[in-house]
Predict the structure of Coatomer subunit beta.
Amino acid sequence: VIMGDVAQPMTFTQLSRGKQALFEFEATADDVQSALANAEEKPSDFVASLSRVVQLSGFSDPIYAEATIHVHQFDIAIDFYAVNQTDQQLNNVTVELGTTGDLKVCERPQSYCMPPGAALALRLNIKVCSTEKGVVFGSILYDTEVQDACCVILNEVTVDIMEYIRKGHCTPSAFRELWTSFEWENKICVPPCDVNPREFISKLGDATHLTPIEPLGDDDDYLSALLYARSTFGEDVLANVSMERTENGKLEAVVRVRAKTQGIALGLGDKIESIPKALRK
């Protein structure tokens, strides 16, 4: 083994590098540009993680709890954080979660002991089986020195269906075949709004990730478009939009969403119904 200067930094080449580095010293000396890139991205990543923090209990509850939600392709990771705000020890502290929709909790709940002022950090995993809006609910059970079976009810966490909808490409012939084969349809009547057809399609794409399969026309009074998107589970999402400007200058639209499953059709329908409210702001 050849030893260099005592002050010379050591290089750990087997540890992760670049954006996946866990510690500052994991990047090698030859990766200066990547290290600088990481330094610029860390503040934005930190701010993004703060936007995913959900408060689960109140500040006056015996146990304060919050969670950071990380949505992946086929599962949801919940970084759970709880603090004992009482002046007594809490025994048999158990976090029990339940779900609605096509979500399944992977781990069995375990019991913990929390002294006064102690904090508890857990990572809980939930499996996602299909593209559907879901809700995660639960409670914290614990025992005290004077009372057994105490409970703190946690706030619900809604899993947005748009976490699993992506933009996609589809030919007109394939669109027609899928349109006739899908049995679930959700028809949404958009109330009159003061916007041009192309702007409405743009707002629709921002809210639902649906994109036109063909170029849009130039008519400002009438427009019909076919839109397509695809879920991370490989499910196709279709939409037919018909828009017409009324005599008072307002734009009326009818959006028909078709999908193989009911959850996608209803979930996207809720997103489309929120577009006129956003346009009025």
Summary: Residues 32-51 form the longest helix (20 residues).
